[in-house]
Write a structure and sequence with these properties.
Number of strands: 17
Number of domains: 6
Low-confidence stretches: 313-322, 753-762
Structural class: alpha+beta
Helix content: 55-70%
Distance between the termini: 42 Å
Length: 762
């Protein structure tokens, strides 16, 4: 959708949205029902009774003009006896007094909120989130469908007020977008089931359901041409909406009970709960009894939760990876709700007699939402200001990084423990900081305890991983444990000390790092000790290294033998059988022609065998150099390729000749991938000289792929190329998206220490 539908959808959304909001703001929504009696239009029912009472409008009053036009000029009175919206009314009281009433949006708070403010805010919020998803979730079909779903829901909501005004465009947009949003939701669910590798329990061809929005669009057009049929057509659209809703609900329910998937459980609650008020309080009563328990405007507020519940799951790095977000939201909601209840109760006792329940409810809701938002804002600010947040005397995060960096450079355990104790002592400004080692075999300490500090062995047995325990005047922190020893960090001071929460957190994180450092350092020490005492062979080689190299060579020989057996050897056996047939043939009339065919087969087989040899060791690489070898390789590719190959090859002056072979192998692998997998029409590959090395830039306009998938699957030789580049301490960058081609950039600096065994492999 990013290249074809996104911008047209946004443009259409902007045009329709601005028009619909303009109509909503053009005149206040008043909804006064009237009936004609003795040639006059009398007020029969008032929707906003409080406003009518404040304007001295009552049932039985005569409406003379609407917006300075005689009331008889209102077209909708022919099929709907109702004044829907107006800026000015002329009303005659039963006494004969005439009133001119100027109406402002703010005069009717209910319509101002539900018909103007909330739809407009939702409209612009949806626009913002659509752009955010477009640039955040690139090339995700789920994100594309979600964007379209959000836009259609927003248009359906904004157009509900305009449709209620009997505006033609509002009616068409409202009916078609109401149905369209459910089809998009159904389409989204089907793709989501594929994404989570769950069997879809409904028909796969969802595209045929797009006929329903078209039907709703046609019914909307008919309603504008024949206004008297609007009620019937509206019920038909509601029926379609209800059927689609039941289908979606059934799919989710069946899938939930069939698979018991937590993702489906989240989807179920995200979709069904917001739909229930609209379904039971508006849609079903409207269809069955031609009445409504709650208005469409209020019920629609619940529907707005659906797309944004999806947004809540989409903005994370991984689609629907929301366990962390849900628990965090629950955590913030509990704190916010607790304080809101406390604040509301206090406000009631202090000023309850001066405030109405509506005001109290509004204050409570505002407090609750503000606190939840504040927690999220605080989280972001804390992250950005984390380096200066916890302490006025220093930077705890920076100190942690610095300490880890210093400690991590040690290669002996004793040196590591000494440096660790020193870093803690300096940072926490404590006098007595040391590592205490307890021997399980002898049940006693192997290090000297400070004169002013007494640690009972029982404490060393009780303390657990990650625990920091305060004992009298000291803190004892678990550090490391193995089969024979248990180490703990002891923090002491002449006076009683008390570490702050942020200091304990800093120490806890540092303990985890040091525990891992000790394990790794032990492995290094053991390996060095083993190498030191290992008996070497007569030729000076280490036996384990010889074994490793032998196994590597045997693996390479096996792969080569398997490839030759499956290709060239089979061809040679076929030629031998044909020659044997000719040797034993009695009819020699056609022997010359058969020999000519065999000769062609033998030449072809020899060419293939030569290609294998050249692949194993390119002959031109040692004789004429890298550029000639690459030119020949590219000519071979051009003979086989059905794409346009654009290339440039700079002449390199490399001191390390092994790099020439590595560059040749990279070109070979990249071009083979282009031939076998890219299905591209154009491929570019460039070798560029750099001051301190070289750079290879590859790009194609082919089918592309998901980078994570090919790396995990180790396919298309990506892992092999990465290892070759890594062997020379180079950098390998890949960028690819499905149907968006692939680009690869490789940079290598000459002079970096390379891993020789990788450099020579292949």
């Amino acid at each position: 959708m990013h290249s074809k539908l996104f911008w047209p959808a946004i443009i259409l959304y902007l045009i329709l949205g601005f028009y619909l909001n303009y109509v909503n703001y053009s005149a206040p929504f008043i909804e006064i029902e009237v009936e004609k009696e003795d040639g006059q239009w009398l007020v029969s029912q008032l929707y906003y009774e409080d406003w009518a009472e404040s304007q001295n409008i009552a049932i039985g009053d005569v409406i003379l003009t609407v917006d300075e036009h005689p009331i008889d000029h209102l077209k909708q009175l022919k099929y709907k006896s109702k004044i829907i919206s107006a800026n000015e009314l002329t009303v005659m009281k039963p006494s004969g007094n005439i009133m001119n009433i100027h109406i402002k949006h703010i005069d009717i708070p209910q319509q101002f909120l539900y018909i103007l403010i909330v739809p407009a805010c939702y409209y612009f919020l949806t626009l913002f989130v659509a752009f955010y998803l477009h640039f955040k979730q690139r090339n995700s079909k789920l994100a594309d469908l979600l964007i379209l779903f959000m836009l259609s829901v927003s248009l359906a909501y904004v157009s509900s007020g305009v449709s209620g005004r009997l505006n033609a465009i509002g009616i068409i947009v409202n009916r078609s977008s109401m149905v369209l949003c459910l089809i998009l939701l159904l389409h989204f669910l089907r793709n989501y089931f594929l994404f989570v590798k769950t069997n879809w329990v409904f028909m796969n061809n969802i595209k045929r359901f797009y006929i329903f929005p078209l039907i709703a669009f046609i019914l909307g057009c008919i309603g504008t041409i024949y206004p008297t049929s609007n009620n019937i057509l509206s019920n038909v659209v509601l029926a379609i909406f209800l059927i689609l809703l039941l289908i979606i609900s059934s799919i989710l329910l069946i899938s939930y009970f069939k698979y018991s998937s937590p993702q489906l459980k989240i989807l179920l609650s995200s979709i069904l709960i917001p739909f229930l008020p609209f379904l039971f309080l508006y849609a079903l009563p409207k269809i069955l009894f031609d009445t409504q328990i709650l208005s469409a405007e209020i019920c629609s507020l619940f529907l707005l939760l659906i797309p944004f519940s999806f947004i809540f799951t989409q903005v994370t790095e991984r689609l629907f990876d929301i366990e962390y977000h849900i628990t965090r939201l629950r955590y913030y909601v509990i704190f916010s709700l607790t304080f809101t209840l406390w604040f509301t109760v206090g406000l009631y006792f202090i000023a309850g007699r001066y405030l109405t329940m509506t005001v109290m409810s509004g204050v409570a809701f505002f407090t609750f939402t503000s606190l939840v938002i504040l927690f999220y804002v605080k989280e972001k600010v804390d992250y950005r200001k984390r380096k200066i947040l916890f302490s006025t005397k220093g930077d705890y995060i920076h100190q942690l990084y610095t300490a880890v960096d210093k400690i991590g450079k040690t290669i002996k355990i004793n040196e590591l423990l000494e440096k660790f104790a020193y870093e803690v002592s300096v940072h926490l400004e404590l006098e007595d900081v040391f590592v205490l080692t307890y021997n399980y075999d002898t049940n006693e300490f192997t290090t000297i305890v400070g004169e002013n500090i007494t640690i009972h062995p029982k404490i060393m047995e009780e303390i657990r991983l990650g625990e920091i325990r305060r004992v009298d005047k000291v803190y004892v922190a678990f550090l490391h444990q193995d089969a024979h020893y248990k180490r703990a960090l002891v923090l002491g001071h002449n006076n009683t000390i008390h570490l702050k929460d942020e200091e304990l957190l800093w120490l806890e994180l540092l303990l985890l790092y040091v525990n891992n450092f000790i394990e790794n350092t032990k492995l290094v020490e053991e390996l060095l000790e083993e190498l030191k005492h290992m008996k070497q062979a007569d030729d000076g080689q280490l036996p384990w290294l010889n074994k490793l190299l032998w196994l590597r060579f045997e693996e390479e020989k096996y792969q080569l033998a398997q490839e030759l057996h499956d290709t060239n050897l089979q061809e040679q056996l076929h030629i031998a059988r044909e020659v044997d047939v000719l040797v034993n043939a009695k009819n020699t009339t056609d022997i010359q022609g058969e020999l000519a065919k065999i000769h062609i087969q033998m030449v072809t087989s020899l060419h293939e065998l030569r290609s294998y040899c050249e692949n194993l060791k390119p002959p031109l690489l040692d004789t004429l150099g890298l550029n000639a070898a690459l030119e020949k390789l590219i000519r071979k590719v051009q003979e086989r390729a059905n794409f346009l190959l654009i290339y440039t090859i700079d002449r390199l002056y490399l001191e390390d000749e092994r790099m020439n072979l590595m560059i040749y192998r990279l070109f070979q692998e990249l071009l083979n991938n282009a031939l076998k997998h890219s299905y591209a029409t154009s491929v570019e590959i460039h070798l560029k000289e750099k001051n301190d090395g070289f750079e290879i830039i590859y790009s194609d306009d082919g089918v592309g792929c998901n980078v994570e998938d090919i790396i995990v699957a180790e396919s298309m030789g990506i892992r092999g190329m990465q290892e070759r580049v890594k062997a020379f301490n180079g950098h390998f960058y890949i960028d690819s998206h499905i149907n968006k081609g692939m680009s690869i950039r490789i940079t290598v600096k000459e002079g970096s220490e390379a891993l020789d065994y990788d450099a020579h492999s292949g």
